Amino acid sequence: MTKIRANKLQLFLLIMGAVAYLFIGLLYSAASLYCYNVRNWDVYGGFSLPPLFCPIGIFFDLFLWPVYVWANWINGFGLFGNCAPL
Question: Is this prediction's pTM over 0.85?
């Protein structure tokens, strides 16, 4: 009986971890899109999406956000990249 309960708890924790990971990826995607628009507001005349953002950018932001955060931190661009206007 306790083994089944332990398995359910492990499954619950695994699912909640996956949901939290994807939610953080979604927040990272929104913040990086905001920074992209702050950088390029004058160039594009308002809100715009980066090239290839919709087909593959969202996928990469959701699943590979730790790599992007690490690369931005190493290169000194801040957490979401350079948010300064051009």
Answer: no
